[in-house]
Amino acid sequence: MLCASRALRALASELGLTLGEQNADIVLLTRDRHFSYDTLQQVIRELIQGATLLDSKVYSPRKQTHYYRRY
Questions:
Q1: How many CB atoms lie within 10 A of CB 32?
Q2: What mean pLDDT is reported for the chain?
Q3: Which of 20, 29, 70, 71 sits at a 20 to 30 Å CA gap from 58?
Q4: Is the pLDDT of residue 20 over 90?
Q5: Cβ neighbours around 42 below 10 Å, total
């Protein structure tokens, strides 16, 4: 499950990633201006069913680096 902007979702599809809203192995949270309580409910359902949560919001302005955190 990818929680992201439309542009990032389109890029993920172009790269061949399979995006789904149910039975996800991984939930990836990125910047998403349309994130809602409905989306949050979907994320929680997937995590309860065993999906791994990844967060891309980690940014270090001093080091100019981005990285993913795994929970």
A1: 15
A2: 84
A3: 20
A4: no
A5: 17
- Asked if 32 and 3 touch (Cβ cutoff 8 Å), the reply is yes
CB 51 within 8 A of CB 24: yes
CA triple 57-55-22, angle to 5 deg:
135
Residue 44 confidence class, pLDDT cut points 50, 70, 90: very high
pLDDT digits (tens, 9 = 90+) for 48-61: 999 999 888 655 56
C-alpha distances out from residue 58 to 22, 41, 53, Å: 25, 22, 14
Calculate ∠ Cα 17-19-20, nearest 5°.
150
Residues 51, 23, 16, 26, Cα dihedral to 10°: -10
| H or E, element range at 70 | strand 65-70
